[in-house]
Design goal:
Blueprint: H1 3-28, E1 31-33, H2 37-56, E2 60-61, E3 64-65, H3 76-100, E4 110-111, H4 128-144, H5 147-175, H6 177-186
Helix pairs in contact: 1-3, 2-5, 3-4, 4-5, 5-6
């Protein structure tokens, strides 16, 4: 198996395990508040389009790569370095999900007994799941080197940024502006050690 194949297997394993965990988490605590479906669609649509472009760009139809040939080919050591970044990003999402426990939800929302989590990966960034997905997405895009992959990673990043902004507005209202405002002064939004905003 080459490095790109390993990265795609990592993504597949992450997706299956993430969805199985979503079923288990969803059965434990019900969601008691969430933003409107329209507000959720504003981030869901670009994130989904970006993900489709990111992964479609690694496939080919009738022998020709979708979106054209790669713009570059990485040396094997660099390709495996990108596989390592995919793994780091996806493991970071799992660390964050475990830290959230039953408070995790695929959609922005507040569950019964929801409290602010500011430890573990949440001490590094306010949205570590999105940070991990962005890292793993760009690592895959750079590994394949296709324009479609890079465009997909950029669009998905924009969608995740929109989701993070919606989540922050929602949690400020639901958990109290003071508590969340204090947390925002301690942890950056998506990039560790970036200036806090």
């Amino acid at each position: 198996m080459d490095a790109l194949g390993a990265s795609l297997w990592l993504w597949a394993a992450w997706f299956v395990s993430w969805e199985l965990a979503a079923v288990v988490t969803g059965l434990r605590h019900r969601t008691i508040a969430r933003p409107s479906l329209l507000a959720q669609a504003r981030h869901h649509i670009p994130t989904s389009i970006g993900a489709v472009l990111l992964f479609a760009g690694t496939r080919s139809l009738a022998g020709a790569p979708i979106g054209g040939p790669p713009l570059w080919t990485l040396q094997p050591w660099a390709a495996w370095a990108m596989t390592s970044l995919v793994m780091v990003g996806l493991l970071f999402t799992w660390w964050a999900r475990i830290a959230l426990g039953t408070r995790w939800s695929s959609m922005v929302g507040r569950k019964e007994g929801h409290e602010l989590v500011a430890t573990g990966p949440y001490a590094l960034v306010r949205h570590p799941i999105y940070t991990g997905l962005i890292l793993a997405g760009f690592a895959l895009a750079l590994q394949y080197g296709g324009a479609l992959n890079l465009i997909g990673a950029a669009i998905a990043t924009f969608g995740l940024w929109l989701k993070a902004r919606l989540e922050e507005r929602f949690l400020s209202q639901e958990l109290g502006l003071g508590a969340y405002a204090t947390y925002r002064t301690r942890a950056p939004m998506l990039v560790p050690f970036w200036p806090k905003t």
